[in-house]
């Protein structure tokens, strides 16, 4: 009799154990995915994506800057850009900023900045470059300015009294090269030069 009841007891125990595990799994919180902001397409992106028409892309290299990445050197290249739709005669102007992480990852990303975004970018750089620990009242801070097409400039520090670091970031994959505050001012000058080229 005991031999016949053993399989039933084992089956019942296994069933209880499985139901218990399933119940715990249902109560386990699921991590919320990090939302990636969806920016509207810039005018340059819209024209670049045009089909059924010949698009002529003309550009001039304004400058290239070398900065730091983890265990290596990265670059940021700035170009003045014109796109011309041969079917409609429409032209769009702006800047192309290419961020390359160099030998660290070999990742490269390019962001397109419309002509009417440039003044805002310059003002944004001016604003974030003035932020410091005294102004915010905390030892660590980060100040960002973003344009469309996933381009961002950040000023940040994690140690009180230390000169802030600058991050120039491009693309959904956040290709990043770091610079000093003096380098940021040079980058601003290059943006002004690029704007003068296309106005």
Structure description:
With 199 residues, the chain is of the alpha+beta class. It has one domain: Secreted effector protein pipB2 fold (2-Layer Sandwich). The protein is 35% helix and 36% strand. It has 5 helices and 8 strands. It has helices at residues 2-27, 43-48, 115-129, 133-136, 181-198; strands spanning 55-69, 72-85, 91-100, 108-114, 141-147, 151-157, 165-170, 175-179. The protein has a 4-stranded antiparallel sheet. Strand 3 and strand 4 (108-114) form a beta hairpin. Helix 3 runs antiparallel to helix 5 (181-198).
List the helices and strands and how they pair.
Layout lengths: L1 H26 L15 H6 L6 E15 L2 E14 L5 E10 L7 E7 H15 L3 H4 L4 E7 L3 E7 L7 E6 L4 E5 L1 H18 L1
Antiparallel strand pairs: 1-2, 2-3, 3-4, 5-6, 6-7, 7-8
Strand order of the largest sheet: 1-2-3-4
The biggest beta sheet reads: 4 strands, antiparallel
Structural class: alpha+beta
Q: Any idea how many domains?
A: 1
H/E topology pattern: HHEEEEHHEEEEH
Query: Count the helices. How many?
Result: 5
As residue ranges, the low-confidence spans are 24-34
What is the general shape? Answer: elongated
Mean pLDDT: 84
CATH architecture: 2-Layer Sandwich
Per DSSP E runs of 2 or more residues, the count of β-strands stands at 8
CATH class: Alpha Beta
Distance between the termini: 96 Å
């Amino acid at each position: 009799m005991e031999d016949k009841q053993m399989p039933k007891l084992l089956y019942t125990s296994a069933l209880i154990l499985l139901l218990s595990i399933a119940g715990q799994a249902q109560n386990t919180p699921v991590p919320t995915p990090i939302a990636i902001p969806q920016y509207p397409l810039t005018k340059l992106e819209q024209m670049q994506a045009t089909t059924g028409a010949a698009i002529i892309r003309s550009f001039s290299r304004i400058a290239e800057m070398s900065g730091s990445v983890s265990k290596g050197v990265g670059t940021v290249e700035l170009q003045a850009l014109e796109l011309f739709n041969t079917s409609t005669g429409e032209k769009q102007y702006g800047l192309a900023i290419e961020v390359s992480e160099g030998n660290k990852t070999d990742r490269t990303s390019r962001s397109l900045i419309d002509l009417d975004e440039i003044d805002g970018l310059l003002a944004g750089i001016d604003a974030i470059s003035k932020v410091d620990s005294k102004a915010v009242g905390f030892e660590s801070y980060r100040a960002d300015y973003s344009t469309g097409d996933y381009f961002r400039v950040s000023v940040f520090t994690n140690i009180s009294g230390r000169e802030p670091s600058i991050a120039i970031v491009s693309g959904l994959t956040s290709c990043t090269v770091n610079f000093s505050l003096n380098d940021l001012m040079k980058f601003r000058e290059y943006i002004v030069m690029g704007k003068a080229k296309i106005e």
